[in-house]
Amino acid sequence: MKMIFRWYPEANAIDLGYIRQIPGVTGIAGEISAGVGQVWDLEDILRLKNQVEKYGLVLEVIESVKVHEDIKLGRETRDLYISNYIETIKNLGRAGIKVVCYDFMPVFDWMRTELERPLPDGSAVLAYDEEIMRKMDPLREDFGLCDWETVYSREELAILLKAYEGVGQEGLWRNLEYFLKAVIPEAKKAGVRMAMHPDDPCWPIFGLPRIITCEENIDRFLAIVDSPYNALTFCTGSLGCSGANDLPRLIKKYASMDRIAFGHVRNVKRLFGGSFEESAHYSRAGSLDMAEIMKAYFESGYEGYIRPDHGRRIWGEKGGAGYGLYDRALGAMYLSGIWEALKKVNQ
Ligand code: DNO
Q1: 56: alpha, beta or left? (left if phi > 0; alpha if psi -120 to 50)
Q2: What per-residue confidence (pLDDT) applies to 154?
Q3: Known catalytic residue: 281?
């Protein structure tokens, strides 16, 4: 298992030198802020790689290369965006990147209804309330969560939401198939494993289809192109929003098939009726048994990448929702601690 840490290259980015100080963390999952659908230049990728390597860290995982909506919608322009996507993957392969995390969620990536819910201990977490969600309308003036409104104008959003009405779940599957059949053979040639991130939360939102949600659908996804290059970013927090997903069993199943290229490991606390809040990584803080999750990786002989996921806001830290330094560093240490214990007792 290789422990890595997600890092955003923005101006107020977390100091890479601090990340290096987290014991056990050997690399980062990085990205380049190119527009969605654009080809990533090899020089830009190499610049990022050099920047990371100066701190004794490695850059072998990219999170993420976003898929243009025209591809998910199956619009005529998709071929252009797919060919740009393939160029990006080729450039990433040339730079020694081994894994690309991406997702196929229409319009919105992870979705929450609150970005800073205070917990009794004074920390704050991302939270999702099903009641609030049902009343939320992305086209209303006061919809302003998660930065998504800065990605699209309200007009663009209206057009996109309308366009998805004609696509539905099966249409999205067809468009995913078209994308995978074009991209995976090229990714294989480039030596890059494509690692699909599940939908977060793992059910449809705002009437938009979502398909990477459960075992049956993950099986269907993996069967579209049966290759280790068509793999998963197994995210316990996303799939764990639903108690129906038996995470340790699924990790064992997919890791033993060599279809997990990247693990996002975090806890989540399921609340009543589909609501949930994020929690510390610590098992007792949420609904997931983190020791069982790490054990599933361990027993499968997993040698891929793992990173801690969203952290709480603690110790007065400011910065990107879920992606501060402190709580994610605690998460990395906790997971590494479990791993060390597993190694010891299995010697
Ligand atoms: C959330 C992340 C996701 C992930 C994308 C991949 O915190 O795990 O945003 O990076 O879905 O495209």
Answers
A1: left
A2: 82
A3: no
Q: What is the DSSP string of 152-181?
A: S-HHHHHHHHHHHHTTHHHHHHHHHHHHHH
Q: Is the pLDDT of residue 150 over 90?
A: no
Local structure of 307: helix, strand or coil: strand
Which pLDDT value is given to residue 319? 75
Ligand 1 atom, smallest distance to 309 CA: 7
3-state percent helix, strand, coil for the chain, nearest multiple of 5: 40, 20, 40
146 has catalytic annotation: no
pLDDT band at 146 (very low <50, low <70, confident <90, very high): low
Report the chain's C-alpha Rg in angstroms: 19
Pocket of ligand 1 (CB under 6 A): 63-64, 101-103, 109-110, 197, 235, 264, 310, 322
Distance between CA atoms of residues 148 and 129, nearest Å:
18
Tell me if the pTM is above 0.90: yes
Catalytic residue check, 101: no
- C-alpha span between 201 and 189 (Å, rounded): 33
Cis ω for the linkage preceding 138 (within 30 of 0): no
What integer pLDDT is reported at residue 148 of this predicted model?
54
Structure tokens at 135: 């009343």
At residue 121, the pLDDT reads 95
Known catalytic residue: 309? yes
Active-site hit among 128, 235, 297, 302: 235
Q: How confident is the model over 25-60, as pLDDT tens digits? A: 999 999 998 889 999 999 999 999 999 999 999 999
Residue tagged 């890092």 (tokens): 7
